[in-house]
Amino acid sequence: MGRVAGLLALAMLLLPAGVAAQQRPAFAMQPGRVVAAALPASILSDREVERRLRSGLTATFVLEAKQRDAARRGASRIEIRFDLWDEVWIARRVEFDGKEERQRIATRAALEKWWSAPLRLFAAAADRVALQVTLTVLPFSPAEGEDARAWISKTGEAVGEGSPLIAAMVGTTVSAKPIRSYRWSAEVAAP
Amino acid sequence: MTRILLLMLIASSALAQEAAPAAFFIERIEVRNARRVSPALIISETLLHEGTEVSEAQLAAAAARLARLPFLLSTDFALEKGSDRGRHVLVINVVETKPFFFLVDTRPVLREDHGPSRFEYSDDDFGSESKDAALGFRWFVGRRGIVHVGVLSQSDRRTFTSHYSAVAAGYTQYDLFGTGAFVTLNARLPEGRWTEGTGSPQLIAGVPLSASQTLTLDFQDTHFRDDTRDIAGVEIPFRDAERLLSLSWTYNTTNHPFAPTRGTILRVTPLRAMRDRSRVSQVTGGGVVPSARHNNAWGLDLAASRYWELSERHAVSAALVAGWADVEERTVGGFAEGVLRSRPAYQVVRAGYSRNLWAGQARSGDSRLELDGRFMTRQLHRDGGDQFGDSDKIYQASIAWVRRSSWGMARLGIGYAWGE
After folding, report:
1. What is the value of pTM for the model shown?
2. Which positions in chain B have a beta carbon within 8 angstroms of at least one beta carbon in chain A?
3. Taking phi first (over 0 means left), then psi (-120 to 50 degrees means alpha), and beta for anything else, what does residue B382 get?
4. Options 3.10.20.310, 3.30.420.40, 3.30.950.10, 3.90.226.10; CATH of B2-96
5. Could you tell me if the ipTM is greater than 0.95?
6. Do B61 and A176 touch (CB under 8 A)?
7. For chain B, what are the domain ranges?
8. Does B56 contact A55 at a Cβ distance shorter than 8 Å?
């Protein structure tokens, strides 16, 4: 009995660390000094995120990276909508360089696999880079933000990047309150 | 070969469907968790209609419209399967505010620009579209009506209109004739004149042109004073009344009725103001000399504000507010008889930063710290005369704490203004 209680206590002690570890993406530097993030599936299981994913409306995930000791930035975006009648996930990802991919995904397991595939979000200038990364979960598709896109395009130079960054960041300019947001620090080095 | 072509056709059709913006046929709209607010009123405010196809952009605009209503604290949209394939039920979950409400915006500003140092209260009109009362109570009646009583405050940057508080009771009818338009009728008693019964009616009528654009007509007939006094055996009427008629076009995509962090507000307001005052201009050896003054003014106010949410915590904003007017002041009786024309104007440029202090659920409200810097100029040109001495340049910095809950909104802060 004492042993069971001890194991339970140990499990309770380790549980928060385990949950926190699951919430953290894995960052890696790909060839060409491109930083990619593999997002944990646990984000999709968050109560508020899950509720949105089941709403039949689009949930938009905007992943932004900012170099800690420089003004370089990059951003990527994922949009997911569950089609209530076809019972498929309609997913789209826009990477930092504007590369776009659309998928119809039949199962939750396949969605989680697709979700956790590395998402390219930042072009580093050196083999080692320290990043501040934020993930913002927004209701609705950023397609509504066409006016915001036009607005930001005019100030694109101030952001320091071209139109792909603007395309990815438009998700943060729509007039909706974020459902959730996450923040991580990461040190990424070339293999 | 035919099979391959068919498969390619189906695949390309599916891809085209995915590339197109999502649109949903809404067969029914259902409002959940509404206890005091009528579901019909909420549905009418979305400007969505059952039996039509709507895009996500329209749903997002509808959600933003509801987010700006002062009597809803938060809303959440979701779809459910309808009666047949391709049909949906739009479910709107709402969190209501309490029937008792307050809107306290108290930011004394220490002014050391011109004249002696003094405190004045900031009269903001940057981010708030709400004309809600400072304190009051509202009842929802019928399917689309609200009765309200409260104390409201009338304040603006114009030099030729009155600033005052009033007790008000009124009724608002939403979704007039199914058009989404609303009408508010208010009976007001300006401060200090409550016992005289100088009732002052107000009519506000608004028509939504789209989910983010509204045309609003505001007519106010305000009686500050209406009595007679016996001075040296002569009955002298003492009257002071003001009529304001304005028509505003507003484009609003912000996410909050009082302290937005995202979106844009553009407002253009042409207005007509008239004021009549009668009193004794002087008492001479020969008796009293009554005088009357009539003001006629045409004006134009412009407001443009933009809010950017940099992250969940930080938001910045920029705004420009300006107004111009042409005022004719006609005096009859007394020494100052004649006509005086003037053209007052003001311009304000503002930059703001706000930080989220709220860690709780959005449905429990929010709380922010606001820092605000602004540059203001005012001019008053008089025909046939030189520029009036009150033309000035003022700089102002302020800090405020904002809290919105189901009970209302409070903005408490302090500011400092200095000028040339």
Report:
1. 0.75
2. 14-15, 18-19, 21-22, 24, 56-57, 59-61, 63-64, 67, 74, 77-81, 85-86, 88, 253-255, 262-264, 306, 308-309, 311-312, 362
3. beta
4. 3.10.20.310
5. no
6. no
7. 2-96, 100-419
8. no
